[in-house]
Prior knowledge:
Helices cover about 25% and strands about 25% of the residues. The chain is of the alpha+beta class. Residues about 1-35 have low confidence and may be disordered.
Amino acid sequence: MYYLNKIFKPLAKISMVSVALFSFVSCSDDDNNPNPQEPATSTITDIVVNNPNFSMLEAAVVKAGLAETLASNGSFTVFAPDNDAFAASGITSATIDAMSVDDLTDILLYHALDSEVAAANVPAGPNAAVGTINGNSIYLTKNSSGVFVNGTSVKQADVEASNGVIHVISSVLMPPSGTIVETAQANENLSFLVAAVIRASEGDTDVLGALMSDGPLTVFAPTNQAFIAAGFPDIASIQAADPNTLTAILTYHVIAARAFSSDLVDGANLPTLNAGTIEVALGATATVKGDSNTTPSNIVAVNILTTNGVVHVIDQVLLP
């Protein structure tokens, strides 16, 4: 029997070693401000419009009606995804065209602060919460490997503008849309996981309540296919399973801390809510492995932010 509200404490420390491909480069924006002794004369909007690597961001800013805002007097910090970042996030021009102005505005303002924060002034964290203009927090870390926001690496820092600063990042940041459970419910590829959480909560432990608590938590979330491969061919089989057995499995996928991909360390053994450990390996592919798994599980999607933690999607069920 596993009680989520006993024994376990948030991890005191997770060593911060990035799995990002890009190292952090702190530099001035020589193209827009050739003489670093002189103040920048281009606004944030000017820089975005005049840099072909920001064409996707420009399209999003124009559709959202934020070009004038980012050209206005003030002091802003923008974590700016370039075209490669949009591609890495699976966001195309068609995606932007299909989005509502409200949703697009919400996402873009999640990348912006209403004050100028140079790279040197980013809090060390790890994962220091900083409020954005859209009202949600981003989580910043600065260490020897670079600067990270929600686990995403800063590719180029301190691009100076007349009304603030731009930090170029390697993926698009998505604001949280709900708790871990609500985020899983919105993902059709995690419907088996949701069914397992609900069934487990019919036993001795309220797993559903725990995963909707304040957290922070990190969940390694198996896909539907992962559950099928583990012997649950359909949701009916999950609903027929012993709730306490499911609880033992599910709590083995949960860490009592917010751990982005940039927090994971090769060879680390992460303590789980059922008092076990899972092993992290970082190579060509990032993986996690349970004690009873014969092969590790690939981490197929990372850094899905929720209001109470973060989700990483995996392709095998972890077995204690």
